[in-house]
Amino acid sequence: MKNERPPYLRLFLSTFQLSACTFGGGFVIIPLMRRKFVEKFHWLEEDEMMDLTAIAQSSPGAIAVNASILVGYRVAGIPGALVTVLGTILPPLIIISVISFFYAAFRDNAVVDLAMKGMLAGVAAVIADVTVTLAQGVAKTRRLLPLVILAAAFIAVQFFGVSVIPILLAAGAAGAADAYLRSRKGKEGDR
Amino acid sequence: MIYLELLWSFMQIGLFSIGGGYAAMPLIQHQVVDLHPWLTMGQFADIMAIAEMTPGPIAINAATFVGIRVAGIPGAVIATAGCVLPSCVIVLLLAWVYYRFRGLDAVQGVLAGIRPAVVAMIASAGLGLLCLALYGQRVLPADLTALDWVAAGIFLAGFLVLRLAKPNPIWVMAGAGAAGLVLYSIL
Question: Could you give the C-alpha distances from B163 to A57, A126, A136, B156, B169, in angstroms and in order?
Answer without folding.
Answer: 26, 10, 13, 11, 11
